[in-house]
Amino acid sequence: MDICVVGSGVIGTIYGHVLCEAGNEVTHLVRPGHGAILRGGIEIRLLDARSGGGPESRVRYRPRVVGRLDAGHRYDLILASVRHYQVPDLLPVLASGTGTSEILFFSNLWTSFAPVKAQLGERFLWGFPVAGGGFEGSVLHAALLGEVKVGDPRGRPAGRVERVSGLFSGCGLHVEVHPDILAWLWTHFAVEAGVIATAIKSGGVGQFLGSVDRIAEAVLAVRDALAVVRARGVNVDALPDAQMFAAPEQMTAQAIKDLYEADRAARRIIERHTGGEELKRIYDDVVATGRRLGVEMPVLEPLGSFVQAYATEAA
Fold this sequence. Notes:
Elements: E1 2-6, H1 10-21, E2 25-29, H2 36-40, E3 42-48, E4 57-61, E5 64-66, E6 77-80, H3 87-97, E7 103-106, H4 114-120, E8 124-128, E9 131-136, E10 139-144, E11 147-151, H5 160-169, E12 174-177, H6 181-202, H7 205-209, H8 212-231, H9 240-243, H10 249-262, H11 264-271, H12 276-293, H13 304-314
Parallel strand pairs: 1-2, 1-6, 2-5, 3-10, 6-7, 7-8, 11-12
Antiparallel strand pairs: 3-4, 8-11, 9-10
Helix pairs in contact: 3-4, 6-8, 6-12, 6-13, 8-10, 8-12, 12-13
């Protein structure tokens, strides 16, 4: 496939490399002045779960880079991975510069699909990456788990979703198709809010993952956040990603602790997820919605002072 990846951030770079490695033609769209590192080549130090949790691999990724979209060039797929609060600013760029190309958003979402449909019509899908990492200069310390999430906002899995699923399957990734991708996105967003806030209060991921009691507090915070999703009309109790948080908190906490001790790739993803502004926005969005809907959040809401202090220091 002929694929355009929007940006040169962690997720775009990881999946750009993975797609290129599988024989696809990959081009990155970058803002003026932001393409130098990609053009010079990025060293990716990757913990790759597709290899069964083997040693870290090191590859040099040097893709094609462009500074603007050409509406006359029809890509087979445009992969847009941005932070959830950056989506509104990206939409006019995609609407005017992508012609009839199909777009796969690979990011969080806490709103509805309505603003996206208003500018792009029906020519988009939504998915979620299961990868992460962080840059140190031109070196990307990355981790890739063996699956991705994909769904059609129209709720019809055939056709477009099958094509995208085939693309990622060809990269050795399991594709988990969600018939109601918005419900999954809201649920995942809520889980992130509870975990992020508690990890910040704990003083960092290391301290957080090393303590069953701290993880148990996160389970309670996640329950508060999931109550917000439930108040938005989602049957949270039917979603596997939420069901584990209904179990006794100490049991769930021990399972989470054991998982991250055993899985180096998963641990790297959460350890490198440190952007202060993004973490604050996730937490703030969930709490603001909960307050608007009158949801009680006795564990989640008091964590706000820790999140604010972290974001201020990170800035």
